[in-house]
Amino acid sequence: MTRIPAPHLTRRTSLISLAAAATAGPSLAQSAPHAQGNSWNSPDAKTTIFETPDFLISLQDTSQTLVSLAPKGVAGGFDFAPSGKFTQRLADGCYRLGDLDLRVRSEGDTAWSDHSTAFKRTKVKALPKPKGALASADITPSLGGVPLKVVRTWAVVGGKLVLRFTLSNLTTKSVEVGGLGIAMVFDNIITGRHLDEAHDVASFYDPYVGLNAGYLQVNRLNGQGPSLLVLPETDTAKFELYKPILNEVDADKKLKIYNDAERRNMTFEGFYSWMTNAKGFADTEWKGIEQWNTPTSLFIKPGQSTTVAVKFVLSPTIREIEPTLIKHNRPVAVGLPGYVVPTDLPADLFIHAPKPVKSLAVHTAGALEVSSASTVKGGWVKYSITGKILGRARLDVTYADGTIQTVHYKVTKPQAEAVADMGHFLTTKQWYENPNDPFKRSPSIMIYDRDKNEIVLQDNRIWISGLSDEGGAGAWLAAIMKQLDNPKKEEVAKFERFANTTLWGQIQTPDGPDKYGVRKSVMFYDPEGMPAGTYDPSINWKVWSAWDRKGAADLGRSYNYPHPAAAWWTLYRLGRYHDSMTAGESWQTYLTRAAETTKAMMSKAPYYTQFGQMEGDVFLYILLDLKRENMTELAAEVEALMKKRVEIWQKLKYPFGSEMPWDSTGQAEVYMWMRYFGHQDKADVTREVIMAYDPAIPHWGYNGSARRFWDFLYAGKQSRIERQLHHYGSSLNAVPLFDAFRETPDDLYMLRVAYGGLMGSLTNIDTEGFASAAFHSFPDAMKWDAINGDYGMSFFGHAVTTASYLVNHPTFGWTGFGGVVTHSGSMVTIAPKDSGRRRVFIAPAGLWITLDAGKIASVAFDTATGKVSVTFEAADQYTPKAYVNLETTVKGAKAYSLSAPKELGAYTVKLGSGPTTVELVPA
């Protein structure tokens, strides 16, 4: 397969243009006079190099801000700081590590005043260096009339680099600091870099806003060590809030204070500030918005001084972040299985801290029930957490020294109940029936606006109301993927009506030379060809995204093909494994459509098939089912097409690009095909890259939340560049991590990340069943987006990988991920509470139990003999028997068998009116 040039303006080019327009601000060339001419030869470009035990660093001479933070011993000139952009970022409004933002007011004043060392650059006054210091300066002149004296010092303390700010009140009035933000500027700039370079030199960073236990982790894009941790060095440096540094300009197009000139777009997420105090913002711009922590202010009396300091520590690898924190006497919280707590599935919280716990407090009161502490070996303390009130919850842990750690939870309905609510909402509130629809979208399941509580019938991002692309297919894809493990006859019947009329006939071409081709949108903008009044005049249709007939009918975007392929595949499995569940077409027709859609992607939309597709792992599931059904000709065609893609990928260093300059959604497919075709080395590379942008943090929003920051532009209601929490990347990236864990079940860290992504996809579902595209993490929003957008891709990932995992950890003991664990003597039992209850992994045995139909009530594992017993739930009208697959995934582990007949490659167990139990025997 060759890389095919795009024959026309690509969606990638168009989306970048849209992002640039949406985030329009001054360009660096316009706002940065030093960026023109020989900026490298200006006085502001001069730096001084210093050496610490961990780093080679350089500071700008005129400002003493950090230019380079290069860890020793890392090949290729890797730098955590964006040193390569230094001479292009010399001007006002270009933040660097060491810059400080303040919002203050003096006693008696009501208005706040704003100050930033980055806003109007002024040469700082170098000071004599205290003992252990690398550099020290009075930076007050650069803060524009602030009523404080501020001294910044770079020092080495205990062998670690420390950044310290000392604020002194030399006035006669108390000064309230309502905003103190330390700029966190690391090299997450992908702009101008090809994929290999970005993975080799760039980093992503995520916060744990855990107050005194908080930290920032900076991971290299390739997943290799070391990782950088920014930690509080003083109690005053508590991590209270994470504030984005935006690109906002005033009426004269000049950069506002607290903003950076570097454009935020798909190649640059933006920089952030570590806020130790944020009350001055919470009471004004963000008034009425619930933040992660209660915002506070700091009072400095006349004649007093306060020091705020952070330090920079290296963790050898991503998986060693928590041991590194413990080594540096930081409180560490580990939630098992995580921080999303369904009301029927309690969680455990393990805490390791240098000081004993003094008290616990829950906010909102009563949202969580916390057990008494029990001790665990290795210095850990264990609490049991039970969810009581739906929604966000925070556990405040106060230690004996007065420091506070916050752990952030989300309480949900039981998983099966939440998923049932979603299925009902999608097939009722989001069901569109209008035989006179001008675009022939009826019947269908369409995108919904939760603010207005109505279907989105028109949007100038034409795909949103056009049933295709991720942003328009998201609703109907979620509806069918819900049926994979939890089919409901009336919902399936509705979906079949949609599938066999609107999907097969409007979205997908049903006949002719373009048969199986998938349109970019069913809706289009053609005011001349459509009746007067068709288009809402209040919407701006003069944008590139309002595709005309030809643009909407284009079949050339490969990313549109996995959605119908997944729908046909799911309908096939419903028809094959359940009695009378489908009626529209035969299971043979549905599987054939799934396979032919896969083939059509390769022939009608080849350009982007050079990249992994979101939900692209569905093509592997289709291939496996084709082989099992002995549809050998189709299977051979699909396999050959996929192999051509893999032959290209296995030669690439990082084989997962996208129509975007960088992406986190094709990795799952790349990983699965690499494994299938025997390229384990490339699967391992892919796995570690996922671990780089998918963090394990004691916070439901960030834990397992794969990196996404542009899709609100294209599939959200509040359209902007913003770190999205639990966008569809979270669950899609969980798929390969779970697969990798089943091969290496001693990697608990990876399982925690995977489970966080899996459960994150359920947090999007509200109490009535509406499922949002993602959560807005910026402090001016802190809410779920109001439309479904591309949520369906998220639920696809959840549906194909949801399971319960039984693990025995050497420190934490027996733990269930997705199920309730009990043990008596040598017998350990897990009762699945995951949304599907069709898959269970017994880690000590390396045994992967999956059902094609039926439900698992419990699995018991005898640690003495290795025997396993599985209890199934009762039969229902459509599921008279369970289809059971047994796989040993760990090399060298014993195979298991079941005394039962086989059908479709699986053991079949006849289900009764009550529970049915079978025994699995190891070889």
Short account of what is shown:
By secondary structure, the chain is an alpha+beta fold.
General description of the model:
The protein is α+β, with helices and mostly antiparallel strands and 923 residues long. Helices cover 24% and strands 27% of the residues. The strands form 10 sheets. It has an 8-stranded antiparallel beta sheet. A 7-stranded mixed beta sheet has the order 35-34-38-39-42-45-44, with no helix packed on it. Strands 4, 5, 10, 14, 15 and 16 form a 6-stranded antiparallel beta sheet that branches. Helix 8 (489-503) packs across helix 10. 56% of the residues are buried. The model is unreliable at 1-37 (pLDDT under 50).
What tags apply to this protein structure?
single chain; 923 residues; alpha+beta; eight-stranded antiparallel sheet; seven-stranded mixed sheet; 19 helices; 24% helix; disordered N terminus
Q: Give the number of helices.
A: 19
Task: Report the sheet-strand fraction.
Answer: 25-35%
Number of strands: 46
User: How are strands sequenced across the largest beta sheet?
Assistant: 6-7-8-9-17-13-12-11
The secondary-structure class comes to alpha+beta
Structural shape = globular
The stretches of 5 or more residues where confidence is low (pLDDT under 50) are: 1-37
Q: Rg from C-alpha positions?
A: 28 Å
